[in-house]
Design a protein that fits this description.
104 residues; mainly alpha; 1 helix; 98% helix
C-alpha cells in the first residue's frame, strides 16, 4: 500500500512537473509571439513612412512640373501678345506713313 501511495505521489509530481513545463513553454512562446508582433508592426510602420515620403516627393515633383508648364504657357502667351501688339503698331505706323505720303 505504501508503494502504491508512493507511485501515486510520483505520478502526481510528474504531472505537476509537466504542467509547469507546459506553462513555461507557453509563456516563452507567448513572449516570442509578442516580440515578433512588435517587430512586424515596426517594419510595417517604417514601410508606411517610406511610402508616404515617396508619395509626397512625387506629389511635389508633379506640382513643380505643373508650375513650370504653366510658366512656359504664360511666357508663350505673353510673347504672342507682345508680337501681336508690335505688329499692330507697325501696321498703324505704316498706315500713317502712307496717309502722310498721300497727303504730301
Amino acid at each position: 500500500m505504501a508503494q502504491t501511495e508512493a507511485d501515486e505521489a510520483r505520478a502526481l509530481a510528474v504531472t505537476a512537473e509537466e504542467k509547469v513545463a507546459t506553462a513555461r513553454d507557453t509563456e516563452v512562446a507567448e513572449r516570442k509571439k509578442a516580440v515578433e508582433l512588435v517587430l512586424a508592426r515596426e517594419a510595417a510602420e517604417k514601410n508606411a513612412i517610406q511610402i508616404t515620403v515617396e508619395a509626397e516627393t512625387k506629389k511635389k515633383a508633379a506640382i513643380d512640373e505643373a508650375d513650370a508648364i504653366k510658366t512656359l504657357a504664360e511666357a508663350h502667351a505673353n510673347e504672342q501678345k507682345v508680337k501681336a501688339e508690335g505688329e499692330a503698331t507697325a501696321k498703324k505706323v505704316v498706315a500713317e506713313a502712307d496717309k502722310s505720303a498721300q497727303l504730301a
